[in-house]
């Protein structure tokens, strides 16, 4: 079980690294789900950092960002513009597509980052799916951010029987990354370990007024918890949770959530190793013995212990019985 578990953990880490590196078109459309408690900026920066290392072109399509981010090759302002014109500006920045070079994996890959699709889903939800699918090519990978705590105001012409824009995004995405704050997840895990109610922050506190969750976090630990849902070409879905610790300008450090000390499953060393390295059956209580219990067990003399030894041929199973003073000897029973 241990080698299989280690193999599965290594496989999950390799898949996540492949997704962040956008290697071999691992995910044409990656959807980042963030909130006020954990913005997607650290993960977006990680995509940009790894894209620059692999010499990929980075195009940033802005709906709410005012300044051009660092290490971005092309910055397109899309707020308030028609989707057709935005698409034309994006396609104009794409490198020339050569099928032969793409087959040999020598074509320059391009990553398109959309900082927010909320405004796009509110302004023109009917054209959302068409816009996203038409800007993706075999050498283009799209990374879009969706704010889960920002409500989408649908137009009055929207048919109530049509799926919600968020449902459409989740259906189109080949990879979904749900982000949460590491320190807050640690506090929740500590509450679960003590069978207490999990604390909440931000909008989930349901307080009126300002948001206190952003400033009440004690001794903040750097890192982002990423819950990955990767949909393979075979149709199989790979789900795993990771911790991403950014370290610009180098790629961030990755680890499984269960490798963290707080989230690691408790291990009973005596039950896992057993006595003298022997495997023990699974149980809800300890099956081990102390030294005193082991010595007492060895000193116990079982009843009819002498009958368990071999006494001649075919006589190992006979019962030895010693008569007491109160026993009445009967010759007939002795003959039987």
UniProtKB/TrEMBL annotation:
Pfam families tied to this protein: Elong_Iki1
GO BP, one annotated term: tRNA wobble uridine modification
Keyword hit for tRNA processing: yes
Gene Ontology molecular function, alphabetical: tRNA binding
Pathway assigned in UniProt: tRNA modification; 5-methoxycarbonylmethyl-2-thiouridine-tRNA biosynthesis
Locations listed in the record: Cytoplasm; Nucleus
Keyword Secreted (UniProt): no
InterPro entries tied to this protein: Elp5, P-loop_NTPase
Signal peptide range in chain numbering: none
Keywords: Cytoplasm, Nucleus, tRNA processing
Biased composition (Acidic residues): 271-281
Region (Disordered) location: 271-292
An annotated GO cellular component: cytosol
UniProt record similarity statement: Belongs to the ELP5 family.
PANTHER family tied to this protein: ELONGATOR COMPLEX PROTEIN 5 (PTHR15641)
Protein's UniProt name: Elongator complex protein 5
């Amino acid at each position: 079980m241990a080698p299989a578990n280690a193999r599965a953990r290594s496989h999950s880490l390799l898949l996540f690294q492949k997704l962040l590196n956008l290697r071999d078109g691992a995910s044409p459309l990656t959807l980042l789900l963030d909130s006020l408690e954990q913005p997607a900026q650290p993960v977006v920066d990680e995509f940009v950092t790894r894209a620059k290392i692999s010499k990929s072109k980075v195009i940033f399509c802005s709906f709410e960002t005012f300044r051009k981010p660092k290490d971005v090759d092309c910055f397109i302002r899309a707020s308030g513009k028609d989707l057709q014109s935005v698409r034309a500006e994006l396609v104009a920045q794409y490198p020339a597509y050569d099928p032969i070079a793409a087959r040999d994996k020598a074509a320059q890959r391009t990553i398109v980052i959309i900082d927010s699709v909320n405004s796009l889903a509110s302004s023109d939800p009917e054209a959302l799916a068409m816009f996203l699918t038409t800007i993706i090519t075999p050498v283009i990978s799209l990374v879009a951010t969706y704010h889960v705590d920002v409500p989408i105001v649908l137009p009055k012409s929207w048919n109530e029987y049509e799926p919600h824009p968020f449902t459409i995004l989740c259906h189109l995405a080949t990879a979904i990354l749900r982000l949460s704050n590491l320190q807050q997840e640690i506090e929740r895990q500590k509450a679960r370990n003590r069978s207490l109610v999990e604390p909440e922050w931000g909008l989930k506190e349901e307080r009126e007024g300002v948001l206190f969750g952003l400033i009440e976090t004690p001794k903040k630990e750097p890192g982002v918890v990423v819950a990955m849902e990767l949909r393979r070409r075979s149709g199989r879905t790979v789900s795993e949770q990771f911790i991403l610790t950014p370290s610009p300008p180098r790629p961030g450090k990755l680890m499984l959530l269960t490798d963290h000390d707080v989230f690691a499953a408790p291990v009973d060393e005596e039950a896992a190793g057993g006595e003298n390295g022997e495997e023990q059956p699974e149980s809800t209580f300890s099956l081990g013995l102390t030294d005193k219990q082991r010595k007492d067990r060895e000193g116990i003399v079982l009843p009819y212990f002498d009958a368990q030894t071999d006494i001649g041929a075919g006589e190992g199973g006979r019962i030895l019985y010693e008569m007491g003073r109160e026993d009445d000897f009967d010759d007939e029973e002795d003959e039987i």
